[in-house]
């Protein structure tokens, strides 16, 4: 199955999750995320999150659960993604694809950890996004960043077709487990 067909199939599965099951699953994902991030504790840790769109896992609550860290959100301008500091004073604007993002003038940061939304994944750490390559390009520019993918377990497939530019994640968090390839 090619990536386009795989995207449509997985998107449909994720979109059709029962609302109550989704809420419970997101809580379990946040629990796993908190445990994993605390395990990697570093002073002044900067964690890049994402502002969810469509039916993505909403992980923004991790800020309240782990207030001791610094946070960032992605922002895309001119087809290039950067991470910007995100705190309660940060003004968010609507960016590409309706994603809420910090203004381009906000402070850029390079995070220690990057929480990556997954459209699909496999157990080797291969990830499937929406196909624009923003995360692949960003992570290729910053190979030192620990990459943590987040998805519902229904988004797992046996094998994600990989291309030379595709970037893998180091960990995958679902509602049922943390996978470390």
List keywords for this structure.
single chain; 181 residues; alpha/beta; Rossmann fold; two-stranded antiparallel ribbon; 11 strands; globular
How are the elements arranged and paired?
Layout: H1 3-15, H2 19-39, E1 46-48, H3 62-65, E2 70-77, E3 80-86, E4 92-94, E5 100-102, E6 113-117, E7 120-121, E8 127-128, H4 134-141, E9 146-150, E10 171-173, E11 178-179
Parallel strand pairs: 1-2, 1-6, 6-9, 9-10
Antiparallel strand pairs: 2-3, 4-5, 7-8, 10-11
Instruction: Give the N-terminus to C-terminus distance in angstroms.
Output: 23 Å
**Unreliably modeled segments:** none
Query: What's the β-strand tally?
Result: 11
CATH class: Alpha Beta
Continuous helix count: 4
Q: Tell me what the CATH architecture is.
A: 3-Layer(aba) Sandwich
Backbone shape: globular
CATH fold assignment:
Rossmann fold
H/E element string?
HHEHEEEEEEEHEEE
- Provide the structure class: alpha/beta
- Mean pLDDT across the residues is 93
State the share of residues found in helices, binned by percent. 25-40%
What's the oligomerization state?
single chain
Task: Please provide a written account of the structure.
The protein is an alpha/beta fold. It has a single domain, classed as NagB/RpiA/CoA transferase-like (Rossmann fold, 3-Layer(aba) Sandwich). Helices cover 25% and strands 24% of the residues. The protein is built from four helices and eleven strands; from the N terminus they run ααβαβββββββαβββ. It has helices at residues 3-15, 19-39, 62-65, 134-141; strands spanning 46-48, 70-77, 80-86, 92-94, 100-102, 113-117, 120-121, 127-128, 146-150, 171-173, 178-179. A seven-stranded mixed beta sheet has the order 3-2-1-6-9-10-11, sandwiched between helices. A hairpin with a 5-residue loop joins strand 4 and strand 5 (100-102). It is globular, with a radius of gyration of 15 Å. The mean pLDDT is 93.
